[in-house]
Amino acid sequence: MSLWEHLISSVRPRALGTGLAATACLSMVVAVGVGATATADPPARAHTAPAGAYAGPAAHAAHAISVNDTAYLRTADPNSTSSTIVEEGKTTGTLPGTVRARLAVGVSTVNVGFTIYLHGGSISGQAKAKLNPGSGEYASFKGALEVAHGSGTYAHAKGTGNVYGSLNHYSYEAKVQVIGQLRY
Question: Which of 72, 73, 111, 150 could covalently link to 87 via disulfide, CB atoms 3.0 to 4.6 Å apart?
């Protein structure tokens, strides 16, 4: 097992079976009202419209997916400092694309603002993670993530999840895994 794999496996929760990845569920209940009409024939009788005859407003179908993505990031801004790092790279998994992130690294936390660029739109949000600075070349972090908005296909994106990762102190390369739920 490489050092990189060891670092990532050490920050993942031991029981993913109880996490968001295992609770992928989408429940949509669509209530269709069937109107009753009264006829002029005595005695008044109620008639029900045939199935599919309801002409009320159409509901917008929402999408909900379980996300398990990994991003490989490199420094995008040569002026990045050790406390604020601008990174970009590729994401693989449920939502493949590219990502640009701004990591504000503190003594014990990492705050991240990010945008993922996908086919059909983008997704933006933030994450806050607890930092384990480590004693060598790598630091690890884990925390919570929130999707705030998006564009295009993902214009109404909202979601939550967990974020796990490692960061090289010298090259600022990072590997980040996100596990969560997305609605759009």
Answer: 73
CA dihedral in degrees (141, 142, 143, 149; nearest 10)?
80
Report the sign of the C-alpha dihedral through residues 37, 39, 45, 51, in that order: negative
Paired tokens of 69: 């993505």
Residues counted in the chain: 184
Half-sphere exposure of 38 (CA within 13 A, CB side): 4
Closest CA to 176 of 1, 66, 12, 22: 12
- What's the rounded Cα separation, in Å, for the pair 155 and 101? 19
Low-confidence ranges of the chain (pLDDT < 50): 1-49, 54, 56, 58
Domains annotated on the chain, with CATH: 3-11+63-183 (2.40.350)
71, with CB counted inside 10 A (0-12, 13-18, 19+), is buried
One-letter-per-residue 3-state SS of 55-116 = CCCCCCCCCEEEEEEEEEEEECCCCCCCCEEEEEEEEEECCCEEEEEEEEECCCEEEEEEEE
